Amino acid sequence: MAAGLRKRGPAGTGTGSGARWGLGLGPAPLKRAWQERRLLLLEPRYTPLVAACLCLAEVGINHWVIRRVAYTEIDWKAYMAEVEGVINGTYDYTQLRGDTGPLVYPAGFVYIFMGLYYVTNRGTDIRLAQHIFLGLYLATLLLVFRIYSQTRRVPPFVFFFMCCASYRVHSIFVLRLFNDPVAMALLFLSVNLLLSQHWSWGCGCFSLAVSVKMNVLLFAPGLLFLLLSRFGLRGALPKLGICAFLQVALGLPFLLENPAGYLSRSFDLGRQFLFRWTVNWRFLPEALFLNRAFHLALLAAHLSLLTLFAFCRWPRLSRCSSRLTSSGSASAAPSTTSSTSGTSTRCPTSSGQHPLAGSPTCSGY
Fold it and tell me: Which residues contact 120 (CB under 8 A, 6 or more apart)?
């Protein structure tokens, strides 16, 4: 039999694809969940059930927010003005600007918000845009919940504070219509693809996320570590090539017109932000927030932590990953089902698939 097949356990133990998520579909698993309802908010294996309930709740919450809470105009009109300039034939990034300043996002942002420009009647149908971002929010939630479901490390009660109880999250999506949700949705899609061992597609989605907003580059060291651990330097180069190719392809019309202008505006590492828009650094005096020495200190701290990780953690994690990969290639161990817990245990297979983090017998990964 194929390695992916699982042995049938005793009745009510939860087998098949539902058990792989820690929760089956049908009356028996739901009955078991009700019997163990005290553990619903504590056991990670109930993440899919709790996630489904939270997503249903979020539909109602977001509809209420859209209808009852006033929309706040910050960047949406500026986004529409910037992409309208491209529609009118301006490909010089230094000439593209909106009410709040020049266009400072890469080309992927332009294409996506150009689509929103047409769908929302040149950006005037705000209510339709809010409902589009509601759909994007729900898709992002599902992607995040799937990540937590596979890692099995976080108790489900935490998810309530992550979504339903967060005013800021709802504000960013349906009350502000920022471009951050688009970038992060693509990033979480990339993480899901990487967890499913679709490395090329995952790298492609990561590059698309960077093309919407440059701050996604903060996740690049983690992606580089995964690629080097999984493929080595030579094998990682084609994956990195996918990321680079997409950036060039998306930005080509603007690179041909004014390459220096496009690169300096869309990937400007020295950009200065206004104090009134900060959230995380509100406790600082404005003079300190705007001080270049403070910016350099933050950059130095970030680079120092990455260096510390590279020297202290990278070698150990790389050895662990190499052992698991070689073990999977040698033994071709199939997936099995525990008859005592009723949950599936995924270990390395002949295809080199890594185990899910937090699985019962492969938690060392």
Answer: 126, 128, 129, 132
CA atoms of 141 and 162, how far apart (whole Å) = 10
Per the listing, tokens 């983690």 go with 222
For residue 7, what pLDDT band results from cuts at 50, 70 and 90? Answer: very low
Distance of CA 310 to the CA centre of its chain: 23
b/e string for 144-161 if b means 16 or more Cβ within 10 A?
bbbbbbbebeebbeebee
Which tokens hold the place of 232? 């080595």
CA 140 to chain centre: 8
Q: CA–CA separation, 50 vs 115, rounded Å?
A: 34
Q: Which helix (H) or strand (E) holds 97?
A: strand 97-98
Nearest alpha carbon to residue 63 among 138, 143, 113: 138
The two tokens of residue 356 are 């899910």
Identify the H or E element spanning 329: helix 314-331
Nearest to 133 by CA among 180, 99, 168: 180
Q: Which single residue is written with the structure tokens 């828009």?
A: 277
Query: What is residue 292's predicted lDDT score, i.e. its pLDDT?
Result: 87
Whole-number pLDDT of residue 282: 82
End-to-end C-alpha distance for the chain, whole angstroms? 27
Other CB atoms within 10 Å distance of the CB of residue 357: 15
Print burial letters for 225-235: b (CB count within 10 Å at least 16), e (below 16): bbbbbbeeeee
310 token code pair: 């590279």
pTM: 0.75
The span from the CA of 308 to the CA of 318, in Å, is: 15
CA torsion sign, 356 to 12 to 4 to 143? negative
* Four-residue CA torsion sign, 189, 195, 201, 204: positive
Long-range contacts of 307-316 (CB under 8 A, 24+ apart): 309/221, 314/225
Q: How many other β-carbons are positioned within 10 Å of the β-carbon of residue 27?
A: 8
CB 243 within 8 A of CB 207: yes
Note the pLDDT tens digit of each residue in 115-133: 999 999 999 999 999 999 9
Cα separation, 343 vs 16, in Å, equals 9
Check residues 303 and 32 and name the one with the higher pLDDT.
303
Predicted confidence (pLDDT) per residue in 305-358, tens digit: 888 887 887 766 656 555 544 544 444 444 333 333 333 333 333 333 443 343
